[in-house]
Write a structure and sequence with these properties.
The complex is a heterodimer of chains A (195) and B (500). With 195 residues, chain A is mostly helical. Chain A has ten helices and no strands. By secondary structure, chain B is mainly α. The chains are: A mainly alpha (195), B mainly alpha (500).
């Protein structure tokens, strides 16, 4: 507590210090708001195109049959338990945010090993029936290896995003864009001002 | 413990450290915020095309300069080589396929010519050339109103914007021929500023208002069907809304099923024409594609028109929406097989199976209706009175409405086979009911033998049977095509030069 007390400025410095702290906090909330941060807690696919470089992934998913049953998180974050889900999401999300902010994204985005495992587990989570067909067990010594050691998309290569993955592969796709950060009433005010 | 002030007195450089540290942190926080803002605006700019033309640019080639891939796929709608079992992109003479239709439409323009629609690219060409639009030459007005142009061209929203909706509809079809030059294209569905889907035809907006729905609240996925529903729907021309204008209206006020639309027409006592043989007050169904699609399983699973008719395609490392609107039967791999894992052959077989079964009963109803009209004519010829015929004619109207609702759509026997079967079987029951009444009436009038089924084995025989002079109609049309169309094209070209 003594340490904290030392941080409290003398009376005549209180006002400027409060103002400066206010600026910090304000900037923090501003970044929070313009980066649409609360949306990252949810499961909406629109959230993933907050960063527009995800447009090819969004557009190809939207034109695939997986659109009807899944959103991005169904496949790309783990679902074994809720703690792991949010841990993985935070970890992966912060990496994405960092890369995007530093403009370090590659022209063609490939999934990382951790992500591959998650997606594969999620394929199995929904399509268990395809893997446990009793007729197909035990006929072949290689069955286990073929079924469990490879990834689903080594064969199902078009599912669901297709094989063309460049950042510029869907130049004209209609993807939801993040809305304006200027609230309606302020826009109105500015428009009236212009007139 | 010393206070910070005391420490600062001892070590003045500490003050500088705190000051510069704060500067760096604020600087970095500011950079973060500005990076976020930049990348957000990037998202908007990255997907905003560099458009130099107006919202109403009717020439698709102009849009094509900026969207070459979409445009070149659109141009493939000119292709007429694909033919499936029942439909396709070639111009099938439907009256030749089923001459009974000519009898069903006796007294109405459809009995003159009715062909399977070709691709969007041919929209203007085909409406100009069909016998249904007549041969208006030398100042003689054509039989159809300008309302008929509404679905044919992006020149339509351009002109509506200039002169107003009702003024656009006003007048006979030939008076705006030189205004409508470009076939259905980009501006019919796209907003030129954002390239988002948009509604360009007032009839759909008005229909939504009449149903108490707000079209601005629909999702992107619904829009991918609604842009099609601007035209691929049942409609009629209302002559009572604006004086001297045949106003385009979608009859959806009570709902969009065959029965709900029929109820609407009954309420406003509307009929498209009076049948030349039976004198029944008839309804003509006009391709209720969207309405029937809504009752099908694909619609209930959230699949839009564009999902099957405009799937994603990949070309040269780019993926885009295939703007070659066509039968998915000509593009099974990109269309059906996105969801269905069966072999192409099996999928095509499944489609034909449904179409065959619906067609089977549709032909039965069609044949019954030929009998209805022939027997009703016989009743009139034998001196039947209006009051004796009233109920019978109403039943003929209702039965043929069901037949036409099922027959007029483009792929409806596949879009919703169960609904169509239901409608057709209802029609068969009503037609038979009418024939029972006709048999009784004819017997009462002293005519107790079977009225022979007319010989309408070919289109020529059927058209002769209903009294059409096809030679004269074709001759007149030829004169119109040779003399008037070049004038329209010339005037249109001259106007378009002024756009630059």
């Amino acid at each position: 507590m003594g340490f904290l007390k030392k941080l409290i400025p003398p009376d005549r410095w209180k006002l400027p210090v409060l103002v400066i702290l206010g600026i910090f906090t304000g900037l923090f909330f501003f970044s929070f708001y313009i980066s649409n941060a609360p949306s990252y807690l949810g499961d909406k696919p629109e959230t993933c195109v907050n960063c527009h470089i995800m447009a090819p992934q969004y557009a190809t998913w939207y034109h695939s049959s997986h659109r009807e049953k899944t959103n991005c998180n169904e496949c790309h974050v783990p679902h074994n338990n809720v703690v792991n889900k949010y841990f993985f999401k935070a970890k992966d999300g912060l990496r994405h945010a960092t890369v995007f902010t530093l403009r370090k994204e590659p022209q063609v985005i490939f999934i990382k090993d951790a992500g591959r495992e998650v997606v594969h587990e999620n394929c199995i989570r929904c399509h268990t029936g395809l893997l446990t067909d009793s007729k197909l067990l035990g006929y072949n010594d290689e069955t286990h290896r073929f079924r469990m050691e490879r990834k689903c998309w080594e064969c199902h290569r078009e599912t669901p995003h297709g094989r063309v993955n460049s950042l510029s592969s869907v130049p004209n796709a209609r993807v939801p864009l993040p809305g304006t950060v200027v609230p309606g009433w302020m826009k109105n005010m500015m428009n009236t001002g212009n007139k | 413990m010393k206070s910070i002030q005391d420490r600062l007195k001892e070590k003045p450089w500490l003050g500088w450290v705190i000051f510069l540290g704060t500067v760096v942190i604020v600087f970095l926080l500011g950079m973060l915020a500005s990076s976020i803002i930049e990348r957000r605006s990037e998202a908007i700019f990255a997907y905003t095309p560099a458009i130099t033309f107006s919202q109403f640019e009717p020439r698709s080639a102009k849009w094509g300069e900026i969207f070459p891939r979409e445009y070149s796929s659109y141009k493939r709608t000119a292709d007429t080589s694909f033919r499936s079992k029942y439909n396709g992109s070639s111009m099938i003479d439907m009256l030749e396929e089923s001459p009974r239709m000519a009898v069903l439409w006796a007294g109405y323009a459809f009995s003159k010519e009715y062909t399977q629609g070709r691709g969007h690219y041919h929209a203007v060409e085909d409406i100009r050339n069909t016998l249904r639009t007549g041969a208006p030459v030398a100042g003689v007005p054509g039989p159809q109103p300008n309302t008929c142009w509404t679905c044919k061209s992006p020149d339509v929203p351009r002109l509506m914007n200039q002169i107003g909706v009702a003024e656009f509809y006003r007048g006979s079809w030939d008076t705006k021929g030189q205004e409508i030059i470009n076939p259905i294209g980009c501006a019919d569905c796209h907003d030129s500023k954002t390239m988002n889907l948009r509604i360009s035809r007032p009839a759909l907006l008005e229909a939504f208002e009449n149903m108490g729905r707000d079209i601005t609240q629909v999702s992107q996925q619904e829009m991918r069907s609604l842009v099609c529903a601007q035209c691929h729907v049942e409609y009629y021309f209302n002559k009572k809304m604006v004086e001297g204008v045949q106003y385009l209206v979608f009859p959806w006020k009570n709902g969009t099923t065959a029965e709900e639309i029929e109820k609407y027409y009954d309420e406003i006592e509307f009929s498209d024409w009076t049948h030349a043989m039976s004198r029944a007050p008839m309804l003509k169904a006009q391709h209720p594609d969207y309405e029937v699609y809504l009752t099908g399983v694909h619609a209930s699973r959230g699949v839009s028109c564009a999902d099957c008719h405009m799937p994603f395609m990949s070309e040269g490392g780019q993926k885009f929406t295939d703007h070659h609107l066509q039968s998915p039967l000509n593009n099974i791999a990109n269309s059906c097989q996105v969801c269905h894992r069966e072999e192409t052959e099996k999928l095509v077989k499944d489609v034909y199976l449904r179409q065959d079964k619906v067609a089977e009963n549709r032909v039965i109803l069609e044949t019954l209706l030929v009998r209805c009209h022939t027997e009703a004519k016989a009743a009139w010829d034998n001196g039947a009175s209006d009051s004796q015929m009233k109920e019978i004619l109403n039943e003929i109207r209702r039965a043929q409405w069901r037949w036409d609702f099922s027959a007029a759509g483009h792929g409806n026997s596949f879009h919703s086979p169960v609904e169509l079967s239901r409608i057709i079987s209802g029609g068969i029951a009503i037609a038979q009911e009418a024939r029972i009444k006709l048999a009784r009436l004819l017997a009462a009038l002293g005519q107790n033998r079977e009225i022979p089924y007319p010989d309408v084995a070919t289109k020529a025989k059927a058209q002769a049977f209903i009294g059409l002079d096809m030679e004269k109609l074709n001759e007149e049309k030829k004169i119109f095509i040779e003399n008037i169309l070049p004038q329209w094209d010339k005037a249109g070209k001259e106007r378009e030069i002024t756009y630059e």
